[in-house]
Amino acid sequence: MRFHPVVLKWCVELANRCGKGGYELIQDVLPIPCISTVNAYRQSHKSYETISQENLNDFSQELTRRNSKGIGGIHWDEIHVKKGAKVCARTNELIGFEDLQIPKSISESLAFDDHLPEEQIAVQVFETDLSSESSSEDSSASSNEEQKRSLGSQKPMAKIILQFFWSSLEGDFTWPVASFPLNKINAKTLSHCVWNTVNVLSEIKFGTNNGKQVQVLYGVCDGATHSSAFFNQQGEINWMVDNPYNNNKPIFWLSDPPHMIKKLRNFIISKNRHLFHHGFEISLSHLMEVTERDLTKLSYKHLFLTSRNKMSVKRAVETCSSEVADDMMLHSKSGFKETLMTRMYLRKVAKYFHIMKSTSLDQDAVHHLLQKME
Q1: Handedness of CA 279, 285, 286, 287 (dihedral sign)
Q2: Total domain count, the chain
Q3: pLDDT tens digits, residue range 69-96?
Q4: Out of 65, 78, 164, 354, which could bridge 178 as a Cys pair, Cβ 3.0 to 4.6 Å?
Q5: Shared domain check, 328 and 220
């Protein structure tokens, strides 16, 4: 069941005033969300810093409590912020989506105008703070001053929140570590945020007498264009680079499996791509035949994507599945030989995703994974 934001806001305020016991008594009378749902919307930290020191201290204490080795990596993804403020029509009170200004520390470190060097932007911003010159200047000079003044007066509003999490290699343990409000994102912006996060995490000490240090060995994200560009820029060899904050130990850049299988699915269903391997075509028409027979879960919605269902990992898994490959092998009108590479492609993608999503693997899992990635 989903609740309206006004209801959630009211329940958060109610839980703050009544506590857990009082809230549960009210829940017995009114159909309101449970206390665990409400707690998910309550902030445990009131700091709005991009990297909160209070949060990092709690992170260090949790690592110590778990007797962790502190070996893991970072995951990041973008959250698009809805512009403007949402106001309750009844009370005229703000209930969410407040405009979020980009912190000065970030705006000074990043050049939002890609066409200008950072030094030139800094000069322009500095000049806007100066008082205007005498009105005797000619019109062209006045126009230049107005442009500079507008550049300095406009405060960029965040449209994206770049969220970073740390995950442990030792088990199911993750922790949010940083949130960067940004106006736009590219490889340069991403590089600044990633290395800033890696630097801060590498300085965290924990354990008995603070004898252990957090190690970041990998970074995981989606397959967005700016992420791929960042990987290519930072990855000297096969998306790997030395980590200067961890004694130059290698740090690996990885694409997460859900986004990877959607990308592999897009390759085969794209009308603009013509894939061949060893002289055999990997074709969308072979998948179309499977949908026409209606013997599998594959349907036209899997092949002709909209802006909504293209994000579904489930549809991508059902498209690139052994079930579809088996149907193609047994019933295809194109012939056994013509569909050979399409079937091999689907089976490799299905096996890759099965290995990557499994929590327990056999001894030959790594060997099979390397075979599928060849």
Answers
A1: positive
A2: 4
A3: 999 999 999 988 766 555 555 554 555 5
A4: 164
A5: no
